[in-house]
Amino acid sequence: MPSLGRLHLITDTRPGRDPLAVLRAALPVARAELVVQVRVEDDATDRQAYDLARRVVALCAPYRATCLVNDRLHVALAVGAAGGHVGADDLPVGAARRVLGSTAVLGATAREPLAAAEAAAAGASYLGVGPCHATSTKRGLPAPVGPDGVRAVADSVAVPVIAIGGVTAASVPTLRAAGAYGVAVVGALSGAVDPGRATAELLGALTC
Ligand SMILES: Cc1ncc(COP(=O)(O)OP(=O)(O)O)c(N)n1
Ligand SMILES: Cc1ncsc1CCOP(=O)(O)O
Ligand SMILES: [Mg+2]
Fold it and tell me: Which end of the chain has fewer CB atoms surrounding its CB within 10 Å, N or C?
């Protein structure tokens, strides 16, 4: 399996957003360092998720960027994505691994070391840890774990830790110092005036 990209762009499918425009700006800058996680609103249909994921896979291919699908693993399989991401309300990690197969990339959400170790043992390739900081992108989240929470998980597992939640280029150095291998963002790219430039700033902070 190729090494995991460090910059994870999660699609922003809220009304008024244009996730494919953001992706087109990010891809030439981050190329194979980019992991695109197709995440749709809970009330989106499978057909809508499939149509978006299919387009993301096609856009990623020339750049060797990785496409993952959040939650809906049948969509990941249907579009030939590299894998998926699951959390507490989704298939358990072991079941997700069986669905996706042994070579797929499988991300799992984990907020604390015990859950992280269980997810890694069950077959997670990486762990999404957060929210690290306050965010308005997703409602109903628990309190932020901060860099200390990232460190606690990173110290307890051998798989890469991807920090998520309110991440900006400015917060990347602290998260990396806490053990994060990479970061996942929605707003830092979707809300940027110049998503290409914002990609370069995030990537610079991740790879310096
Ligand atoms: C990289 C990454 N980390 C965490 C999450 C959150 O997943 P989950 O807890 O299943 O919540 P939803 O995104 O499904 O609402 C993620 N998607 N990606
Ligand atoms: C899906 C998800 N899970 C935890 S935080 C989050 C949203 C992250 O979005 P942003 O990067 O805009 O804070
Ligand atoms: Mg989920």
Answer: C
